[in-house]
Amino acid sequence: MAVLDIKHKTITNHQHRTRRVLPASRPRRLRATPALRAVIRETELNVRDFIYPLFVRHGEGRSEIRSMPGVYQLSVEESVRESEAAMRSGVNAVILFGIPAQKDPIGSENFADDGIVQQAIRAIKKEIPEMVVVTDVCLCEYTDHGHCGILNTGTGGSQTRPNEHLPEGYVLNDETLDVLAKVAVSHAECGADIVAPSGMMDGMVAAIRSALNENGFENTPILSYAVKYASSFYGPFREAAEGAPKFGDRKSHQMDPANVREALREAALDVDEGADMLMVKPALAYLDVIRVVKDAFPELPMAAYNVSGEYSMIKAAAQNGWIDEAKATLETLTSIKRAGADVIITYHALDAAKWLAG
Ligand code: PBG
């Protein structure tokens, strides 16, 4: 302790030095300057980490999504423009979601040759061949009931077995696999570089792998939404993709937010079935899950989906002047990468690219 000599207004330094015990370890030594901090930084975001989601719809022009400022439903032509903008900022991967002209019980436009996503894949690959085009493979945006699969009608209908033992409205697993396989093949035929099944059906990776193989697409990789939770953070997406369920919820196939051991089981199954990459979704409320899955399967590239609700939270707070959007976004994305994600799907991709460059 320094002793202040009031009378002479000096500090008796001699006493001070001999008595004070200096900390041996000082983490602050390495934090003293920006240059030192850069040397010891463990996690560095890179524009190549990002996949940028695009919503494609029929018609002309673009329309902003109310709950996702800065995100648009795009015409095919606008999806090419947006992909070009992505490429200019260094983001070289997009993931496509389609909003069909017509919805029906099985989501027929999903595997139609002139479907909206099919058109967009062809247009983007034609104009920007080096763009990595990923496609979401699910039924919910295409079905009139808004569910991720074929529903049990209790009467037979489109399903192959009666399923009387299952509740009416239950998403039928195996009947849905047949549709998912057709969708994936249709996307691959149009030139998709990666297909990403997001429906959380059991056996979806195996079904898609074998259908791709049978059709000559043995080299098309599968990015499996292996660990996808029944999350409230998908709210804005359901407005964007017009894919909210008309009744009920997705809890019979998406995971319970309370579970993490189950995530390992889901990931292991998908790895066995031939998944080339795994995904955890959402990202921010599930950083522990990203870490656990990454540690269990370090050899596979891991993606994390920084979902619509996570985007909109930052946007809304920033618009109110409550948070610094650039800093909060880069901090969030860094935390997702630090947790173990190699690839981040984010609506902030182009902004983040700009902020990283500037
Ligand atoms: C299903 C799908 C969803 C999202 C991506 N793929 C919606 C859902 O499962 O309900 C959500 C993505 C987001 O919220 O940003 N096709």
Q: Quote the distance from N terminus to C terminus.
A: 46 Å
Count of discrete structural domains: 1
How much helicity do the residues have?
A: 25-40%
Bound molecules: ligand PBG
Low-confidence stretches: 1-10
CATH superfamily: Aldolase class I
Name the average pLDDT: 93
CATH architecture: Alpha-Beta Barrel
**Structure summary, number of beta strands:** 14
CATH topology label: TIM Barrel
CATH classification class: Alpha Beta
How would you describe what is shown here?
- By secondary structure, this protein is an alpha/beta fold.
- The chain has a single domain, classed as Alpha-Beta Barrel (TIM Barrel).
- The protein contains twelve helices and 14 strands.
- The strands form three sheets. Strands 3, 4, 5, 6, 7, 10, 11, 12, 13 and 14 form a ten-stranded mixed beta sheet that branches. It has a two-stranded antiparallel sheet with strand order 1-2. A two-stranded antiparallel ribbon has the order 8-9.
- Strand 1 (4-5) and strand 2 (10-11) form a beta hairpin.
- Helix 3 (76-88) packs across helix 4 (116-127) and helix 5 packs across helix 6 (204-214).
- The radius of gyration is 25 Å and the shape is globular.
- The chain starts with a strand and ends with a helix.
- Ligand PBG binds at residues 136, 138, 140-141, 198, 234, 237-238, 250, 307-308.
